[in-house]
Write a structure and sequence with these properties.
Elements lengths: L2 E7 L2 E7 L7 E4 L3 E9 L2 H6 L6 H12 L9 E9 L4 E6 L8 E5 L2 E5 L2 H10 L8 H10 L13 E2 L4 E6 L4 E6 L13 H25 L5 E3 L5 H11 L6 E6 L4 H12 L4 E5 L9 H8 L9 H8 L8 E3 L4 H7 L21 H12 L5 H21 L4 E3 L5 H9 L2 H4 L3 H10 L18 H22 L11 H6 L2 H14 L7 H11 L4 H17 L2
Parallel strand pairs: 12-13, 12-15, 13-14, 15-16
Antiparallel strand pairs: 1-2, 1-8, 3-4, 4-5, 5-6, 6-10, 7-8, 7-9, 10-11
Helix pairs in contact: 5-15, 8-20, 18-20, 19-20
């Protein structure tokens, strides 16, 4: 496991770092301060150019001496770290603006434990004779929503640092306070015209693409980009190509013959970009239960990243350091808006198993009441808290980036009026004006080319629905209905069925002290639907990983 851990006891701070080489990670340690930053700083080159410094550690130390913890506001990218101010008796621990770089913390009596790995943190607690117990309410949230909400974890009294936040530990009295350094609340609406907004989006997005691809050059790495049948990865790849940073390889993984493969293969061919495809056929990787539960750290369903693990581990040439994606683009440019005006969030887009909602309704309502904007709620709890699993899987092989996840574009997207973004209206206008060849290919979501606004609403309701019925009922090819038709794989493999049955039989005893949860897991596993079966198995895997 990469990352770092910190143990504070008896006014003594013990730190350990496990940084991977060849990125921007560094540690500064002197009599006054210890600073550790891990990851990829996408704007590192720009910061140095504007500072007069040649070495980034010298630059950051000087910056901290000038502005204290506000120094982390200058960073953009995939990073996390800590600053131990030895003279001020303070410790600051931070994650990046999208919390894709996780950090967890807990306090027990007069000890504080901080770790970038929840798995490693629980092991450390056990080594220190501190009991690790499940948070049953959070376990039910996982079943209800498919991921933990806010800063929750499956372990009682352990919390995750929120996106754009840091914790401040007073080493004199061991208090922990969580504070924001990047805030999307209270941003004023965009004041110019819709046409100018498209122009500004084009400019910001272009800058982000160049920043990512120039980082490849800085790291002496090839340009490696994900490509599917969606819009986000497509427009990111085509922008790079147009800006003179042609990807060296486009990578797609999907059920063979599904739209994700056929569309992405054609895009790569037409733009003369080397293309690699990994078939997900058969679903043998559905037995990666323990591996993916550890990678998810119990904060999301393992099925959300299990196909990604299989795809990347079978990739022959892994000579890249950054994986370029289009992550969360659809969300921040309309996908998180359910009405053309600002409103408080509800159950839409977040509840995946309503059966368990009554068990967590009280806590859920308290969370919803903290938000005036559904967009900000979904951004944190759908984009960040679900996206993190895919990022964690990929990070075994390199850092995943996205031009939709910089601070500048997040602030810009939130400022745009909801009536412009709903149903991806502005997104589609931007695509057709600034990258019209992106509309030459079918959009997997709609089954139609994204060259007219009406298709974004009619396509999913009519064409995609008819296509699914045609493949599932008429031609009897349910394997053609999804990028990864898990249900089809499960129903057609005795080996997978036996594996899940044995996993259930071998581990159900772990819930003996929680009879209500045990009964719910049993009922889930007895369902014919693979999704519900896997939910039950997921709970057993979490207990196996952390508690027994």
């Amino acid at each position: 496991m990469s990352g770092f851990r910190i143990h504070i006891v008896d006014n003594h701070v013990k730190t350990s770092s496990f940084f991977v080489k060849d990125y921007d990670s560094f540690v500064i340690n002197d009599d006054q301060v210890e600073i550790a930053v891990e990851g990829v700083i996408l704007n590192k080159k720009k910061l140095l150019q504007n500072s007069g410094f040649l070495d980034f550690t010298d630059f950051f130390l000087d910056l901290y001496q000038k502005v204290n913890v506000n120094s982390i506001k200058e960073l953009d990218g995939e990073f996390r770290g800590y600053i131990w101010d030895k003279l001020g008796h303070k410790l600051f621990v931070f994650t990046n603006p999208t919390s894709t770089q996780s950090v967890f913390y807990t306090k027990h009596d007069q000890q504080i434990f901080i770790d970038s790995s929840l798995v490693r943190l629980t092991k450390t607690l056990k080594e220190n004779k501190i009991s690790v117990t499940p948070d049953i309410q959070n376990i039910y949230k996982l079943l209800t929503f498919g991921n933990m909400l806010e800063n929750d974890t499956p372990v009682e009294n352990i919390f995750k640092i929120l996106d754009g936040h840091f914790i401040e530990v007073d080493l004199n009295n061991l208090t922990i306070v969580e504070k924001k350094y990047f805030d999307l609340e209270g941003i004023d609406y965009y004041k110019s015209s819709r046409e100018n907004a498209i122009h500004d989006l084009d400019s910001i997005f272009s800058d982000n693409i160049l920043m990512e691809y120039e980082k490849d050059n800085e790291l002496n790495s090839k340009h490696f980009a994900l490509l599917s049948g969606g819009l986000d990865s497509r427009i990111a790849l085509l922008y790079a190509n147009q800006l003179g940073e042609k990807p060296d390889e486009a990578f797609c993984f999907s059920q063979s013959g599904y739209l994700d493969e056929t569309i992405s293969r054609q895009i790569a061919k037409d733009n003369d970009i080397p293309y690699t495809f990994q078939s997900l056929d058969g679903g043998s990787y559905l037995n990666y239960i323990d591996q993916l539960t550890e990678l998810s750290q119990g904060c999301g369903l393992f099925t959300g990243g299990i196909h990604i693990q299989y795809a990347f581990e079978n990739l022959e040439n892994k000579d890249f350091k950054i994986i370029h994606s289009g992550s969360i683009g659809d969300g921040i440019l309309g996908g998180f808006n359910t009405v053309p005006y600002k409103q408080k969030p509800g159950e839409f887009k977040i509840v995946i198993n309503g059966k368990f909602l009554p068990k967590v309704k009280s806590d859920f309502d308290k969370i919803l009441n903290q938000y005036e904007s559904e967009e900000l709620f979904y951004l944190r709890n759908v984009a960040y808290n679900r996206t993190i699993l895919g990022s964690r899987v990929i990070q075994q092989f390199g850092y995943q980036t996205s031009p939709f996840m910089s601070k500048k574009i997040l602030e810009f997207a939130i400022s745009l009026p909801e009536k412009w973004k709903i149903n991806q209206k502005l997104y589609l206008d931007w695509l057709n004006q600034c990258m019209p060849n992106a509309a030459d290919y079918i959009w997997e979501k709609t089954g139609m080319k994204p060259n007219a606004q009406w298709k974004s609403t009619i396509g999913p309701k009519v064409k995609k629905r008819i296509s699914k019925i045609w493949n599932a009922k008429i031609t009897k090819k349910p394997n053609k209905t999804s990028m990864y038709p898990y249900e089809f794989y499960y129903n057609n493999s005795r080996d997978i069925q036996n594996y899940y049955q044995n996993y259930y039989s071998d581990n159900i005893w772990r819930l003996e002290n929680y009879p209500e949860l045990k009964n719910d897991v049993r009922q889930l596993f007895e369902q014919k639907d693979f999704f519900q079966k896997s939910q039950g198995i997921n709970i057993l895997a979490i207990f196996k990983l952390f508690f027994n």
